[in-house]
Specification:
Blueprint: H1 6-32, H2 53-56, H3 69-77, E1 81-93, H4 94-101, E2 114-115, E3 121-125, E4 128-134, E5 140-144, H5 145-148, E6 151-157, E7 163-172, E8 177-181, E9 193-194, E10 205-210, E11 218-229, E12 244-247, E13 259-261, E14 266-274, E15 282-286, H6 287-300, E16 306-307, E17 310-314, H7 317-323, E18 332-337, H8 342-345, E19 353-357, E20 360-361, H9 365-373, E21 380-387, E22 390-397, E23 399-400, H10 404-407, E24 424-428, H11 431-436, E25 445-450, E26 465-469, E27 472-473, H12 477-487, E28 494-500, E29 503-509
Parallel strand pairs: 9-14
Antiparallel strand pairs: 1-3, 1-4, 1-6, 2-3, 4-5, 5-8, 6-7, 7-8, 10-11, 10-13, 11-12, 12-15, 13-14, 14-15, 16-23, 17-18, 18-19, 19-20, 19-21, 21-22, 24-25, 25-26, 26-27, 26-28, 28-29
């Protein structure tokens, strides 16, 4: 280039300016597209802040030394996780096992060898394995109820290889939470950090650790896929109170009772169930719910919940219109009010809509049931209802849910002829089963077995739920037994109303 040529000098300066500008734009563009080095790239960390300096570096995609942030999570969580072996003998009905094993969800902590007996029953003679987490230095361990339920002996193994026999402090089948204890003082680093599941957001990191398929201290990583999952059809009906965290962190048989953690190593859930028909779908109990239960189990060994005595139902658009609620108004429809219960004594009637309970507006059935259970027995609670298009305030003194059976056990059971009536063997239906079987406001009794020579063998089948016989409602086993006692010598055909696959239908059975 000739510096004495003004035109050439001007062109050179213009070209240089364009090149420098392009370089600056390129740097800014690549930084926005995350094409920078891994140590500089950032991601959204968990909802809760770091709990100590040791884990604060996990807010970056990689630590300064180039490690994955999950290394720090594994180091912190690993010593807090225990493997649990429960020695048990369980006897179950073949028909009911097959019924629930065919449901879309299945409890996954156990993988026993099954010794099937001839006939209607079978026994499981094998230890079941699961997981748990240490929650205090003095030996308390949190796990699932189904991990240690019916166990004759519970053995706990820690990361350092030590084994201890555990005492069962208390169990709560309604949330699937249990508390056990070993006679050992743990170090501070072996105690789980308890987080706040209410702060979880969809998309937050989720880290699971446990004993899947016998592979000890396995860590898997995913995200929080959804919150507030309920009405899951889990083996045996599942817990009554469901508010599951859904995650795609890989969990399998043996993870039950183990922790689901956030990116800071804080426990936000208790791994509890999977959907074996879908890959990457697991469920955990929120730690806030679990710790409420643990507090009561540690103090008394049992859980006391408020009890109202009514059957709530979700509001459909048709129901909302019929009771005079707007599209943006929420609540639960009162399908049934049981006699001699706090609901009846407080003036609640079938057909009412509960729009507020205590200090909370009622959104749906699950939220309403959780709100009632949060109050201790004996609590005086105000509620706002809608009746005939007008709002009305009621007050209820809650009963004790644990005493529910005694409230309905005041009438003597009817005497039933020896053998099963019409060759039909039935069992009770609980709340969780009623939701899973889509009974829509009814309970009834479920058919567990039908004898080969039964007159109903061509009309009814195992898994059907009987809700009426000859236009008489069948709400429970007592109702079925009374009807059986009244009709055991009858020769006329009887009209059975059943629920099958969520559909109500009639079948005529002739003795």
């Amino acid at each position: 280039m000739n510096p004495s040529n003004p035109a050439m000098l001007r062109n050179f300066l213009i070209a240089a300016s364009i090149a420098v500008s392009g370089l600056i734009v390129g740097v800014l563009f690549t930084s926005q597209m995350h094409w920078t080095t891994p140590s500089e790239a950032q991601f959204v960390s968990g909802a809760a802040g770091p709990v100590n300096a040791e884990l604060s570096s996990t807010s970056a995609f990689m630590t300064e030394s180039g490690e994955s942030p999950f290394v720090a999570v594994a180091d912190r969580v690993g010593p807090t996780v225990v493997n649990i072996t429960s020695d048990r003998v369980i006897t179950r009905s073949n028909s009911m096992d097959e019924f629930f094993e065919n449901s879309p969800f299945w409890e996954f902590f156990q993988h026993p060898q099954i010794d099937r007996e001839q006939g209607k029953k079978r026994e499981w003679h094998s230890p079941a394995t699961g997981s748990g987490m240490i929650i205090s230095r003095d030996g308390f361990i949190l796990t699932n109820n189904h991990v240690i339920d019916e166990a004759e002996k519970v053995t706990v193994k820690t990361l350092n290889g030590h084994e201890y026999e555990a005492e069962i402090i208390g169990k709560d089948p309604e949330t699937d939470i249990a508390l056990i204890k070993v006679s050992h003082t743990f170090g501070a680093e072996e105690v789980a950090l308890i987080g706040n599941s209410d702060q979880l957001r969809i998309g937050d990191w989720a880290v699971a650790m446990g004993n899947p398929l016998g592979l000890e201290w396995t860590l898997t990583v995913g995200v929080v896929s959804a919150k507030g999952r309920s009405n899951l059809s889990i083996a045996g009906g599942g817990p009554s109170y469901q508010d599951f965290i859904q995650t795609d962190a890989s969990i399998n048989f043996g993870n039950s009772g183990g922790p689901l953690c956030n990116i800071h190593g804080e426990v936000v859930g208790v791994n509890s169930a999977i959907n074996p028909s879908g890959q990457g779908i697991g469920f955990a109990i929120p730690i806030n719910m679990a710790m409420k239960v643990v507090t009561q189990l540690r103090e008394t060994g049992t859980v006391a919940r408020g009890y109202l005595g009514m059957l709530p139902r979700e509001l459909t658009p048709e129901l909302r219109s019929a009771v005079g609620l707007g599209e943006d108004e929420n609540g639960v429809f009162v399908e049934r009010v049981d006699p001699k219960t706090p609901a009846a004594q407080g003036g609640l009637e079938a057909g009412d809509v509960i729009v507020r309970f205590g200090l909370k507006d009622v959104k749906d059935v699950q939220e309403f049931r959780m709100a009632v259970a949060d109050y201790p027995p004996g609590s005086s609670v105000d509620a706002m209802i809608v009746r005939n298009g007008e709002k009305k305030k009621l007050n209820f003194v809650l009963g004790n849910r644990a005493e529910l059976a005694s409230l309905f056990g005041q009438q003597p059971e009817a005497e039933v002829p020896s053998g099963n009536w019409l060759g039909i063997e039935v069992g009770p239906v609980n709340e969780a089963m009623a939701r899973a079987l889509r009974l829509d406001g009814t309970y009834g009794v479920i058919i567990n077995n039908i004898e080969e020579d039964s007159p109903a063998v061509e009309k009814l089948k195992e898994g059907d739920v009987i809700i009426e016989i000859d236009r008489v409602a069948v709400d429970d086993l007592n109702d079925f037994k009374r009807i059986a006692a009244d009709h055991h010598n009858s020769k006329k055909a009887m009209l059975f109303r059943i629920v099958r696959d969520g559909t109500k239908t009639f079948e005529a059975i002739e003795p």
